[in-house]
Amino acid sequence: MTRTEITKRPTADGTPLKEGRPPRTAPPAARRLRRSLLHLILAVLAALYLSPLLYMVATSFKTREAAGSTDPQWIPSPATLQAYEHILGATDSPVMRWLLNSVLAAAAHAALVLATATPAAYALARMRFKGRGFFFASIVVTLFVPPMVLLIPNFLIVNELAWVDSLPAVIVPGAASAFGVFFLRQFFLTVPPELEEAAELDGCNRWEIFIKVVLPLSKPALTTLGMLAFLANWNDFLWPLYVLLSPESLTLPAGLANFQNANSIHYDLLMAGAVIASVPVLLLYVVAQRWVIEGVARSGIKG
């Protein structure tokens, strides 16, 4: 190969190289410097985001005097479990009962959201029927309705059903999730239609295609939506205060709010309650993070 042929070969993007000028590449030292700076920035951002969480955990292991001190102390000395012993043993604040109520309510709410949103989203993504665009637009419009507007109507419905001061009052309202329909529809649009056509040629009807082909491929999106629904119900604070009246029926956010009113200056107890409320959610995310990331990524590919 001649020198002229070498200089006229195109680059990776298809443009020809100018004669006598090799492609520009950053020296290894510059690449290492950029990578180190990027890691440093990410480490600083991670420290900023994690510092409140770490300080919360540290405060929960402090004595009451150290927790109320104005001098910040990141490592409790001496470390003690008295805040957890007090909060878990309090008879007027059944924290473990609140935790169980929150787990049951959030899990049941997430299951209902998946049960209602999945078939609706599949119908809007794959089935052809008159008015499909209108129905989808109507569902999306409800996302712009402020939740506060629905407090009184939902309370009247729950009261008529005699669900006040019971877990169904915080499970059923909101189970028909407009966001869930929108989210899953975006994911179903990315599923190759050739798979459904092949199943149809094998003799599967629409329901069998949905159950045997689409749902197994939708595990990332279903896991993501289930986790988002779980977190939304878990963190719900205002609605449980409206419909749950007795201390035994409260969920964790509402119960901890009452606990805070009674222990407003006991920061060790408040931080211990916050840690108890955070641990289940963090564990859930650690277990499901792979499917969450994949589900969010694939749901945004096609609009």
Order of helices and strands: HHHHHHHHHHHHHHH
What percentage of the residues does DSSP assign to strands (E)?
A: under 5%
Poorly predicted parts: 1-8
Distance between the termini: 49 Å
Largest sheet: none
Indicate the radius of gyration in whole angstroms: 27 Å
Number of strands: 0
The CATH topology annotation of one domain reads as: MetI-like fold
Mean pLDDT: 81
CATH class of one domain: Mainly Alpha
How many helical stretches? Answer: 15
CATH superfamily of one domain: MetI-like
Structural class, from secondary structure content? mainly alpha
The shape is: flat
Task: Please tell me the CATH architecture of one domain by its name.
Answer: Orthogonal Bundle
Structure description:
- Helices cover about 70% and strands about 0% of the residues.
- The chain is mostly helical and about 300 residues long.
- The chain has a domain at about 95-300: Orthogonal Bundle (MetI-like fold).
- It starts with a helix and ends with a helix.
Highlighted features:
mainly alpha; disordered N terminus; MetI-like fold; 15 helices; 303 residues; flat; 0% strand
